[in-house]
Amino acid sequence: MKVLLVFAHPEPRSLNGALRDVAVKELEAQGHEVLISDLYADGWKSEVDRADFPGLSPDARLVPVAASKKAFETNALTEDVKTEIEKLLWADALILQFPLWWFAMPAILKGWVDRVFAYGFAYGVGEHSDKRWGDRYGEGTLVGKRAMLIVTAGGWEDHYSPRGVNGAIDDLLFPINHGILYYPGYDVLPPFVVYSVDRFNEAGFEPVAERLRERMRTLATTAPIPYRRQNDGDYLIPSMRLRAELGDPGAAGFELHLNRGAAD
């Protein structure tokens, strides 16, 4: 497999840096080809602004969606964005690695998504009609590829449990797994999460490193999160509401968008 790892941590000597090295070494040992986009080291520009659209007239109002669409269609995206898109098309699997800061990814990684997931590439793709609502949520440009997260969190695992005060980790990561990765077609694997990293010591590193090696060894075979496909009949078009007869009785929120098979 060809693997792109997008790394978002400002310190290469951090725990994240050590875990990245473990992941890359194991992937290469398994015969995979790996590319790394190190956003801090590369000085990635995170904000979307007029500089992203050099073809936009100076007196024109900036509408980011429209500008992104035109730039993608005319091959006028900036070179840094085009390079990252080429990497995504090259890769069979994408890994996003980051520390959980304020219940989300670091701003630099969100900015990578904002700029690289261009209109016509990652969204705004496919037919919109009374039968389908675009190629998204299980379809799209990146269909057939795999994606997963490597995440570190300062809080205890209990704090991110279903009854934990921080909220369930699967709920916190849903906007990334479902809204960013599944949306353009990726098969999204369960995340690899390391907890209590603010209290980490050397003795605790090797068991975590071995768990990560195992996840890298099974990157091609791990079953993805069973999200519902948008255009397979589970959702009413164009309202995009889940059919009333689907989902566990009493279920609400993100859980409804998991297809549990016989449970429905």
Automatic annotation (TrEMBL):
<dbReference type="InterPro" id="IPR051545">
    <property type="entry name" value="NAD(P)H_dehydrogenase_qn"/>
</dbReference>
<dbReference type="Pfam" id="PF02525">
    <property type="entry name" value="Flavodoxin_2"/>
</dbReference>
<protein>
    <submittedName>
        <fullName>NAD(P)H-dependent oxidoreductase</fullName>
    </submittedName>
</protein>
<comment type="similarity">
    <text>Belongs to the NAD(P)H dehydrogenase (quinone) family.</text>
</comment>
<keyword id="KW-0560">Oxidoreductase</keyword>
<dbReference type="InterPro" id="IPR003680">
    <property type="entry name" value="Flavodoxin_fold"/>
</dbReference>
<dbReference type="InterPro" id="IPR029039">
    <property type="entry name" value="Flavoprotein-like_sf"/>
</dbReference>
<feature type="domain" description="Flavodoxin-like fold">
    <location>
        <begin position="1"/>
        <end position="214"/>
    </location>
</feature>
